[in-house]
Design goal:
The complex is a heterotrimer of chains A (115), B (597) and C (238). Helices cover 80% and strands 0% of the residues of chain A. Chain A is mainly α and 115 residues long. Chain B has 16 helices and 22 strands. Chain B is globular, with a radius of gyration of 23 Å. Classes of the chains: A mainly alpha (115), B alpha/beta (597), C alpha+beta (238).
Chain lengths: 115, 597, 238
């Protein structure tokens, strides 16, 4: 293969937009939790658990985990793209990042499921 | 030591990538010819970028206008020294070249109906000198910038081959006088090349840096003039230099005439609008030479402003701030940066500053370089073209009107390019052989500089030249100062021949470049001083104390003896003259008349 | 202001004689006529003709003399000498992120390559009309703040994304130029231009840190232009 400097993958808009949308979602989640905390949702373990176990909160937490993972994926990938030049190493890092994120999402969902 | 010269072959080589060079390059590249454009700086850094006020064209967008009126104004502005065939050609072509630029994307300001915005400018009048007319097509006060970028962009589209940061050194001419290209220095490596071409177009700009106080950029060192003069080509009408009325006092940075076009007023220390006395009709919008002299007269008679009473004020505080922000944003920036005043609140201190070289390499209106020969006074030099400020077509004669310079470089850049295209089509495929001594002059100059011992300092010699020119050949000229000036400038020339540089590096050696530039500047300076000393009349920008206004010589102009172009030859420091072409292409001659605004 | 002495620390490197770059301490006398940093540089060059830097118009429109001044990119001809604090040396370096040719002169090939890559010319496939193409003053206003760019490279060379990927990221100057043509009502290639830029490297390396806005000597705002490009892409995709 000739060594050519290539650009033109023609993606990025969805990621860029997703990063912004997920950020808004996470901010909203943080607000809800903050308000709940102020109202004493974490007064003791039982109240905290019942708050988090409610259907609405479980749905909201589920969305948060997905949003966080997507957000992190775009951000971490950007770091690899900025600083890591060898393509094979970059690919390996991308795959590792993906595995780590998917694993974390699965783990988080498991926790949510058990609530 | 410099010994080797690498040869590169092109159909055409253009020296200079300002407005004229880029316009010529578009013509050649789009016609499919292999064209090299050499420039000392990246093309958009050429000094066309600093033009502010606009480009003249009788589009008639704002009010009725006609190319014939424009022609009349240009002839009158030139004090009848302009060649009327070239002037007619330029004024008739104006609309075409401006519309072309618009089509290429130049961001002109607009009128409400969507057409190009036009503003009044000095000396541009309706109906053969009756009243000011809006003829200057403008992009805010950054017209040159917008134009240069649009033309560079068009060249990118046309795949023109640029040689950026290459300095042309000498013209290559064979025994028959045909021009076969140039030698050049690649600044980054210090290597010497020859560009062997069938057509050589000079668009090297003016030599405004020969004066101490100048609106011109550092790069405006008259390289084309130096190269032409060394190759035996005469320089035409070099005594005519425009002093722009409004350079920022001290800094020399240009304040466009468009400021007065938008309503700006010049005031002396008494707060008086003094131009009413000098040009009752056109007032602040009289021709540049008239305004500059009025300002100097005010200052000389003690009505200057400031602690040293050495400048006048350009006042736009009466204009609405929105107009200033919209139409003159760059001027406001310059005033704040270089004069330390915000023109919305305070007037700007200004003085006449050397701005434009009306003379240059003699050409016809097709852009071909012409010299006196056995058959006529205008014989074409085969293979050699020139356009823009370095050329003298002559459309500006003894004084240029504002906005006619951008027009000049468009029209004659284009016509030089198109003439070259026509000539190239007729030429055989093979290049004519280079003469044996093609590189001798270049190598000799470089090696002299390389080995010079106990020579003159470049910086000091340049300063001496600039001060000599400023003192002896300024806005007003005095017979005794000119006479002294000739001796002095020839003394300076001897020093220039013995300049020494300490830096001998091959890589981007700016010391060497400045020394080579000085060798070009001094040719322009000597030509100016000698031509000015010899012309015993006052005409346009050349005004002598010993040639005052008399009934026989209105404004000191002596049409009986001096209605002729000066030609200065480097060899023997010799002067010759040729007649002015008073016959236009299609219309009647615009007859000689006393010039008043 | 009477004459005073200015002290400089200047990056020097002449590949013809120096094995590696070094910082030179040098001082120069300036007087009341020397207002700008460029005036001082010209005086320095009169003292030592081997000091290499670019300059031309000396009024901030040609874009030649962009250098790194006390850690911040700017034009020497627009930098007031009075803005420098007394006593501290003025540190001058070439623009960061581009190869140095000599002293303060950098190789701008990569910068111009990116500028050229966005097709910096008007694209309009209609046959040209006899007269000018019409454009309302309001449509023309859209180009303000875009066409004034002088290609000095202060912005792109202060952008970390351009430092890391100068070969792939168009950079603020090039993207500003791209938007200048997208915003022009006379240009018909908006879609192609957006297609070309919709790329993780060419456009989306911009992380909106706004160094470009901070240093632009003409007061332009490339970040805003980049934002408008992204907004158009969203509008087109949604």
């Amino acid at each position: 293969m000739v060594r050519r400097n290539v650009v033109g993958a023609h993606y990025g808009l969805v990621d860029w937009l997703a990063q912004r949308v997920t950020a808004v979602l996470m901010a909203a989640y943080a607000m809800v939790v903050a308000v709940a905390l102020l109202q004493g949702a974490a007064a003791d373990f039982v109240t905290w658990r019942s708050f988090m176990a409610s259907g609405l909160m479980r749905f909201f937490s589920f969305v948060l985990v997905l949003a966080l993972a997507w957000h992190a994926w775009v951000g971490v990938r950007d770091i690899w793209m900025d600083y890591v030049k060898p393509v094979s190493l970059r690919l390996a890092l991308h795959v590792l990042t993906l595995f780590a994120l998917i694993g974390s999402v699965g783990w988080a969902l498991g926790i949510l499921w058990r609530l | 030591m410099f010994r080797t010269v690498t040869i590169r072959k092109f159909d055409a080589v253009i020296v200079g990538a300002g407005g004229a060079g880029l316009r010529a390059a578009i013509a050649l590249s789009e016609a499919g010819f292999k064209t090299a454009v050499l420039s000392k700086v990246f093309p958009t850094r050429s000094h066309t970028v600093a033009a502010q006020g606009g480009v003249a064209a009788s589009l008639g967008n704002a009010e009725e206008d006609h190319w014939h009126w424009h022609m009349y104004d240009t002839v009158k502005g030139s004090d009848w020294l302009g060649d009327q065939d070239a002037i007619e050609f330029m004024c008739r072509k104006a609309n075409e070249v401006v519309i072309e630029l618009e089509h290429w994307g130049m961001p002109f300001d607009r009128l409400d109906n969507g057409r190009i915005y036009q503003r009044p400018f000095g000396g541009h009048m309706a109906n053969f000198g009756e009243k000011p007319v809006r003829r200057s097509c403008a992009a805010a006060d950054r017209t040159g910038h917008a134009m240069l970028h649009a033309m560079y962009q068009r060249n990118v589209r046309a795949h023109t081959q640029f040689f950026v940061e290459w300095m042309a050194l000498d013209l290559i001419r064979d025994e028959e006088g045909e021009v076969l290209g140039v030698t050049a220095l690649e600044m980054e490596t210090g290597d010497i090349y020859a560009f062997h071409a069938k057509a050589t177009i000079f668009a090297t700009g003016g030599a405004g840096r020969i004066f101490a106080s100048s609106t011109n950029a550092f790069i405006n060192t008259g390289d084309g003039l130096g190269m032409a003069a060394r190759a035996g080509i005469p320089l035409e009408d070099m005594e005519f230099w425009q002093f722009h009325p409004t350079g920022v006092a001290g800094a020399g940075v240009l304040i466009t005439e468009g400021v007065r076009g938008e309503g700006g007023i010049l005031r002396n220390s008494l707060g008086e609008r003094f131009m009413e006395r000098y040009a009752p009709n056109a007032k602040d919008l009289a021709s540049r030479d008239v305004v500059a002299r009025a300002m100097v007269t005010e200052i000389n008679e003690g009505r200057g402003c400031g602690p040293h009473k050495d400048y006048v004020l350009l006042d736009i505080t009466h204009l609405p701030p929105e107009t200033i922000m919209k139409r003159l944003p760059g001027i406001r920036e310059i005033a704040i940066q270089f004069a330390g005043v915000d023109p919305i609140k305070e007037p700007i201190p200004v003085v006449p500053t050397c701005h434009y070289q009306m003379g240059g390499i003699p050409t016809n209106y097709l852009g071909q370089v012409v010299v006196p020969g056995k058959r006529s006074q205008n014989e074409v030099v085969p293979g050699f073209y020139a356009a823009g400020e370095c050329a003298c077509a002559s459309v500006h004669g003894a004084n240029r009107l504002g906005t006619n310079s951008l027009l000049d470089l468009l029209v004659f850049g284009k016509s030089a390019g198109e003439t070259a295209v026509e000539e190239l089509k007729k030429m055989p495929k093979a290049h004519k052989d280079l003469p044996k001594d093609a590189f001798e002059r270049t190598l000799a100059r470089l090696n002299r500089l390389e080995t010079q011992k106990d020579g003159a300092n470049v910086h000091e010699t340049r300063l001496l030249m600039q001060r000599t020119m400023q003192k002896h050949c300024g806005v007003f000229r005095f017979a005794h100062l000119l006479k002294e000036g000739v001796d002095k400038i020839l003394e300076v020339q001897k020093r220039v021949e013995q300049t020494e540089i300490r830096d001998k590096s091959k890589v981007f050696n700016t010391a060497r470049i400045e020394a080579l530039e000085l060798e070009n500047m001094i040719e322009a300076a000597v030509a100016t001083m000698v031509s000015a000393e010899a012309r015993k009349e006052s005409r346009g920008a050349h005004v002598r104390d010993d040639c005052p206004d008399t009934p026989e010589c209105p404004n000191g102009r002596d049409d009986v003896n001096w209605l002729k172009h000066t030609l200065w030859y480097k060899e023997g420091n010799r002067l010759d003259y040729k007649s002015v072409n008073l016959r236009p292409l299609t219309v009647e001659t615009i007859p000689l008349k006393k010039r008043a605004y | 202001m009477a004459s005073r002495t200015l002290h400089f620390k200047i990056y020097r490197y002449d590949p013809d004689k120096d094995r590696k770059p070094y910082m030179q301490d040098i001082s120069v006398e300036v007087d009341e006529n020397d207002r700008k940093l460029l005036d001082a540089l010209v005086k320095l060059k009169a003292k030592d003709d081997s000091l290499a830097f670019r300059r031309s118009c000396r009024e901030g429109v040609c874009g030649s003399d962009a250098i790194n001044i006390n850690g911040k990119n700017g034009l020497a001809c627009l930098t007031d000498l009075s803005s420098f604090p007394e006593g501290k040396p003025i540190v001058l370096r070439p623009l960061p992120g581009l190869p140095v040719i000599r002293d303060l002169i950098v190789d701008m090939t990569q910068f111009f390559k990116q500028y050229h890559s966005i097709k910096p010319y008007l694209i309009n496939h209609d046959p040209p009309p006899e007269r000018e193409r019409l454009q309302s003053p309001k449509d023309r206003e859209e180009l303000d703040g875009l066409y004034e760019c002088i290609l000095c490279a202060c912005c792109s060379t202060s952008c970390p994304s351009f430092w890391w990927n100068p070969d792939k990221f168009v950079g603020p100057a090039g993207l500003l130029a791209a938007y200048r043509f997208i915003a022009d009502t006379r240009d018909q290639a908006t879609n192609e231009r957006l297609d070309d830029l919709e790329d993780p490297y060419r456009l989306f390396r911009c992380h909106t840190i706004m160094n470009c806005v901070d240093v632009c000597p003409k007061g332009l705002n490339p970040t805003r232009a980049i934002g408008k490009i992204k907004a158009l892409m969203v509008a087109r995709a949604i």
